[in-house]
Amino acid sequence: MRKIFSVHTTTWSFSFIVLLLMLNACRKVDEHKTLVESQPWLADHYSLSGRYGISQWNYPSTWVVGDTGILIGKFFLEKPGSEIRVGGVPVKLVDHIQLDPNNQYTTDIHLETVDVARFIITKEMGIGPGRPITITANGITINGAPLSIQDFAESVGRTDTTLLVDKLAHWVPANASVLNQKGYAFVRSIHCDRNGNIWFDNQLSINEVTNGQVNSILNAGDKLTDANGVTMTIKEVLGSAISFDGNTLFFSIEDGEPSADAADNYIFRLCKMDVPTKNITMLNRTLVQKKVAPFKGDASPFQGSVDRMKIVAMYLNTDLRDNLTYTNYYAPPSTTDNHAGWKSDISSGTINMEVTRGNLVLISRLDVAGKVTPLMNAPYFGSNRPAITGPGIHVASSFCFVDPSGKYVYGMANVESWRTLIVKYDVQQEDIIASARSIDGIFAFHSYDSAQATRGAGPMDLGVIDWSSMGYYFNSSMVISDGSILAVYGGSLYNYDFEQRTVYCYAGVENALSGPAPGQDKLTGKAKWVDFSNAALIGQDKSNAVYYCQGAMTTDGIDFYKLHSPGK
Questions:
Q1: Sheet harboring 502-507: ordered strands across?
Q2: Cβ atoms of 118 and 84 closer than 8 Å
Q3: Which helix (H) or strand (E) holds 16?
Q4: Rounded-to-integer distance, Cα 23 and Cα 478, Å
Q5: Residue 79 phi, psi dihedral angles, 5° rounding
Q6: Is residue 384 predicted with pLDDT exceeding 60?
Q7: DSSP H or E stretch at residue 316
Q8: 250-260 burial string, b = 16+ CB within 10 Å, else e?
Q9: Nearest residue to 540 via CA among 365, 320, 352
């Protein structure tokens, strides 16, 4: 047993040491409390109770470009230096609100509010898996779980029995009598952007369908001025295509400018318009002589900078990377031909007109850097050869089908007994990687219908992609977001995996190959019973909804439709 004095002295010393430790500990607790309160963090779930149409929010695994992304947590966005980055790119907030956490998180620190940040997902954030998420606030940076960003929503990859069809608009052009008198189709080339806005042209105009209304964008007679002050007048439209993000409209026109060149030449321009600002950039100006020339000219160069090419562009298509694919029908100076017949064909305004009047027929691609690359040269079939031999693989037709990814272009080649060999061309490898004769029944049918009366069976062919019948069909097939081919066949839509040689019914009745099945006579409603005969396919939006029109081959007006999952 220790002495009392000693005990008292020791007790006093111990109490003093404890007091110092407690004061230091309190200071550290305060510092830790401040650190915790100033630390940004991300939630993994949160109940939004219907706000933004969301009941339960969960931390995302996948976003689609153009979607509105949502992150929830503590971000301190009201303080300078705070930011959210996706794929290394600072987000631009659509809105930012603060909500009561409703005791959804249990912490030692009282939490008064959480941040809900909404922003648009852009392609600049990067496409593919592993896109990083970072939050910076109060000098602290934290990392969220990486996620995937895609151009399109995931494809179902089989028959979706929930699909519905809605009618978007009916359109008869105000100048219908003029179009009919001249034999111009109401719709000649047609595409849609990621938000489902439809863009189309005819010989006299370029138009947009949005929110059920058809709006005129450009018309014959319009006077345009580009960014460099160059003026031009639209005499007629040869083609157009909208970029998938909806921000860039490419168009090809004959120019009616009153220049000295106009006396002896037709003047053509390839342009692009920035849709939000309406600013126009002229990419190429090309002259084609109106009279017999004293010397024969040529069509070269075939590749290089777009402003150095000789281009008369039709059948324009874009991909997700803003590359433009088109067919070049340029006619060089001739010592025997004044190009009157060529000009008549170019100006016919009809659907699927191919022009072969001693001119170049070259499917080419213009990349975002302004470089032109030749892909396919036509027409090669039987003993027939092009009037102008150009670079690229040999195909029969000047029509092609562009994969949205931009990696592949499908062409129609080597016509034998009037049956087409469909080729899949790899743009990077510059080679054909797959092919199939359109009439051969080589696609194994996968049925997802248990009803014997409507169940389909195979095998099937891809006969709708046939050069000999292109004059009778308009946009009867297209390549969709997952790289497969969607085609109108009989009364239904069928989905073809070109390399795996499989097919399934995308929408409609499975066994409607010869025409609409009994009961398949609807225009809207449940997709299984909709008649897709004569549908002209337009494209897909970011949710994979398919857009098409009816009436393109008639003079009664055009009906625009959307094939989609409920709620999309």
A1: 444-445, 502-507, 492-497, 485-489, 477-479
A2: no
A3: helix 4-38
A4: 74
A5: -100, 145
A6: yes
A7: strand 313-318
A8: bbbbbbbbeee
A9: 320
Look at residue 346 and tell me whether its pLDDT is greater than 90: yes
Which residue type is seen at 528? K
CA distances from 312 to 120, 181, 208, 293, 316 (A): 37, 25, 23, 19, 11
Query: φ and ψ at 53, to 5 degrees?
Result: 75, 20
Tokens, residue 135: 């939050």
Q: Structure tokens of 169?
A: 């608009």
Q: What is the reported pLDDT for 109?
A: 47
Please give the Cα distance from 378 to 121 (Å, whole number): 41
- What's the DSSP call for residue 517? P
Distance CA 96, CA 533 (A): 47
pLDDT on residue 418: 61
Q: In a 10 Å sphere around its CB, with 0-12 CB exposed, 13-18 middle and 19+ buried, how is residue 405 labelled? A: middle
Can you tell me the distance from the alpha carbon of 117 to that of 114, in angstroms, rounded to the nearest whole number? 10
Give me the residue label for tokens 């060999």.
Answer: 421
The two three-digit tokens of residue 538, written as one number: 């337009």
Per-residue b or e along 369-379, where b marks 16 or more CB atoms closer than 10 Å to that residue's CB: eeebbbbbbbb
Structure tokens at 522: 């609807």
Query: Do you know the residue count of the chain?
Result: 568
Q: What is the pLDDT of residues 72-113, one digit of tens each?
A: 999 999 999 999 999 999 999 999 999 877 655 544 445 568
Query: What is the C-alpha separation between 47 and 131, in angstroms, rounded?
Result: 25
152: DSSP letter: S
Tokens 């409507």: give the residue.
454
- Distance (Å, rounded) from C-alpha 367 to C-alpha 375? 13
- Contact present, 447 and 324 (Cβ < 8 Å): no
Is 121 or 37 the better-scoring residue by pLDDT? Answer: 121
DSSP code of residue 341: H
> Does pLDDT of 223 surpass 80?
yes
CB 471, CB 352: distance < 8 Å: yes
- List of E strands, 178-256: 189-192, 198-202, 205-210, 213-219, 223-225, 231-242, 248-255
User: In terms of pLDDT, which residue wins out, 51 or 20?
Assistant: 51
Confidence of residue 65 (pLDDT cuts 50, 70, 90): confident
Q: How far apart are CA 131 and CA 69, in angstroms?
A: 13
- Predicted local confidence at residue 35, as pLDDT: 54
Give the percent of the chain with pLDDT over 90: 71
Which DSSP state fits 554?
S
Distances (CA, A) of 226 to 221, 280, 307, 338, 372: 16, 5, 14, 31, 21
